[in-house]
Amino acid sequence: MGTTSPQAVLVLVAALAGLSAPGAADGQPNFIVILADDVGWGDLGANWAETKETPHLDELAAEGTRFVDFHSAASTCSPSRASLLTGRLGARNGVTHNFAVTSVGGLPLNETTLAEVLREAGYSTGAIGKWHLGHHGCHHPSFRGFDYYFGIPYSHDMGCTDTPGYNLPPCPPCPRHGAAARIARKDCYTEVALPLFENVTIVQQPVNLSSLAARYAEEAARFIRRASDSGRPFFLYLALAHMHVPLGVPSPPPASGRGIYGAALSEMDALVGRIKQVADSHGKGNTLLWFTGDNGPWAQKCELAGRLGPFVGAWQRQRGGSSAKRTTWEGGHRVPALAYWPGRIPAKRTSRALLSTLDIFPTLVALAGAALPPNRRFDGLDVSPVLFGWSDVGHKVLLHPNSGAAGKDGEIETLRLAQYKAFYTTGGAMACDGSIGPAEHHQPPLIFNLDRDIQEQEPLDLASREYQAVLPAISRAYAQALEDIATDNVSVADYSKDPAATPCCNAQHVACRCQAPGSHTAALDRCTERSATWLCL
Question: Which residues belong to any copy of the Sulfatase N-terminal domain (predicted)?
Fold first, then answer.
């Protein structure tokens, strides 16, 4: 008589607890991945009691599982998003820093996206929101596995609008006349208006930021309903504009002690609540909703930046600069994460497993019954046992790539091993006061014990028994990780630039304006004519 496998025992335990693993009889589950932009770990009330603006997200946490040791794969936009959609770090997939408005390239075409795998497995696939993985030619999301796309090709502050959101420094609206009306402003895009795409067509330029959240909610709801009516499983990747810089504040703004940022946070929370409501109405019990962030708060935006919670990177702050976005301190990459799947994912549960956005790719692929792309290695894990409450064990080692504050972009000079975090390079991004922490190289590395020092304030004494005991394990893990990457099938992204790659629906108009008030249909016709130039030939 054969012995019962540990996995079978876990399935039995879960079933007895009223939870079940998805099986062939259930059909393929639906997936909704909601990615917030520059959201702080402390921006959720479920994580940080001082935050009062997220009742819907807090409800999501209460009805699902909250992950408190969850990390973005990088601490800046493009690399983080590339890793989520490939399950591979930038050192493998080639995306090591952000793409520009004039970028010719994007996520390398030989990298396989999650959408491509799921579409091949029979899924209806949609992307709504910020892309930032290349918009020119074949890098556009319509050619990266998504049946439907509605959104902005990069961050919503990378182009002028008629309704500028809040920013520091404030940016002027788009010019309406000739060059004389143009206002040069540092850190502002004043020459080309921000475009809004539906599939390969620019449907609005400049975007109306004031109504963008409502449009995203509307398009997401429409996609879910349409996919549900078709009878096919669906994958929706909803990459929010929030909380990068506030889009605008509803009038009158909701009561909030955090002013503009708090009002924007409330707007994001309501949007997530709306998506949950629609998902529950069209497939409750067969839809996994996963909410997380692309990186930590953008500290240089001062009162327009999110809350770090306890992850303040005190060692770096004492030396200048921010310890949030673009850094490898906890505040740069530890992000809020919630998973909701009634009847499958335990409610009212908090997991302390060490997880990452890298895990979304292999986990969803496994749950869909699909296979990982061949001839490459993955940094993410199938963490479905953690999702279903059968285990609370995630990564043994997690790598944190340089993301702009110090060191060469994309290189691995920080890693986590259990509760220990080792820095071979440190540095601070620009802080609210304008300071930037200098890059420092550490050999042997700085090592923090996060179980005792979550604020990353005091590294272990090099002469201590604890340091000497853990250093050999860290050194081995680091060497093995670098060797694994060096011997993998890695890609190289094209970061070249050409002004001709700038999305522009009418180059004859100042700032590429293509939708004057009252001429929506004509503007769409003009944009449709241009769509041929986006065909992937």
Answer: 29-370
174 included as an active-site residue: no
The whole domain housing 325 covers 30-395+497-501
Q: Is residue 481 in a domain?
A: no
Write down how long the chain is.
537
Closest to 449 in 3D by CA, of 440, 439, 459:
459
Model confidence, pTM: 0.91
DSSP output for 300-317: GGGGGS---TT---HHHH
Domain assignment of residue 218, yes or no:
yes
| CATH number, domain with residue 255 | 3.40.720.10
Grade residue 170 by pLDDT with cuts at 50, 70 and 90. Answer: confident
Strand order in the sheet with 412-417: 397-401, 412-417, 420-426, 440-449
Query: Considering the domain boundaries, does residue 482 fall inside one?
Result: no
- Could you give the CA distance from residue 350 to residue 122 in angstroms, rounded to a whole number? 33
Catalytic residue among 56, 71, 77, 140: 77
Residue 25 has pLDDT above 70, yes or no: no
487, part of any domain? no
Amino acid identity, residue 173? P
Residue 220 burial class via C-beta count within 10 angstroms: exposed 0-12, middle 13-18, buried 19 and up: buried
The dihedrals phi and psi of 516, each to the nearest 5 degrees, come to: -80, 155
- The pLDDT, as a whole number, for residue 392 is 96
CA distances to 30, 200, 264 from 80, in Å: 23, 24, 22
What are the tens digits of pLDDT across the range 96-155?
A: 999 999 999 999 999 999 999 999 999 999 999 999 999 999 999 999 999 999 999 999
Residue 192 has pLDDT above 80, yes or no: yes
Q: Do the beta carbons of residue 118 and residue 364 sit within 8 Å?
A: yes
**How far is Cα 280 from Cα 278, in angstroms, rounded to an integer?**
5
Query: What is the token pair recorded at 146?
Result: 């998504």
Identify whether 512 is a catalytic site residue: no
Mean pLDDT of 507-529: 54
What is residue 41's three-state secondary structure? helix
- pLDDT tens string 416-467: 999 999 999 999 999 999 999 999 999 999 999 999 999 999 999 999 999 9
Options 56, 71, 97, 132, the catalytic residue: 132
The pLDDT, as a whole number, for residue 255 is: 55
Structural tokens at position 77: 């936009």
Q: What's the rounded Cα separation, in Å, for the pair 227 and 461?
A: 57
Residues 6+ positions from 293 with CB-CB distance below 8 Å: 35, 36, 37, 38, 39, 40, 72, 335, 336, 337
202 CB-near residues (< 8 Å, 6+ apart): 195, 196, 503, 504, 505, 514, 527, 530
